[in-house]
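Lab notebook, bench 4. Still working through the backlog of constructs that have no structural model yet. Next entry is a single chain of 167 residues. Request: give me the structure tokens for it.
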Amino acid sequence: MEVPLNPVGREEIHRLESILLFATLFRPEVIELIKDPAERLTWVDSLAVAAGAIAREKAGMTTGEIAEELGRTEATIRKHIKGETKAGQLVRETYELIKQGRLDELVRNVEVLAGGGKLVPEEECRKLEERVRELEEENRELKVKVENVRKILSDTLERVREIEKLL
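Model written out:
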């Protein structure tokens, strides 16, 4: 999926805004933050405003234009854009992850959740992936050893049969 990091026009602004919002919502740390039903609505609203503000800022809109369009104060918009709010900080981090080409990781989170799975923090995921590589290597080595044992047994069995013929 192509993400307009510096959107031009309303369609691209809305696309970046949507991607920022959904990718941020499905980050493991945000899932934890919005588990509390009492906080959920506030968090989702703040993230939506922050995503809208940052998408419009990347399109070159002024703080005043963004505030008017989103129906918030300029002070609120400024705080989100500067990352002075937790929502602004999270959306800005998501923007940087997307900029680094890591949108697939964020999308994987959505797929895991949609499949009923649990999200694993990124560091833990890396450790698990490394452990899988180690186990795959160990498995290859064991297969070679098993094949060597089979060959030795086969050779031994053949010698035993030769000896039996001599007896």
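Notes after review: DSSP finds eight helices and no strands in the chain. Helices lie at 10-25, 28-33, 37-58, 63-70, 74-82, 86-99, 103-114, 122-166. Flag for follow-up if needed.
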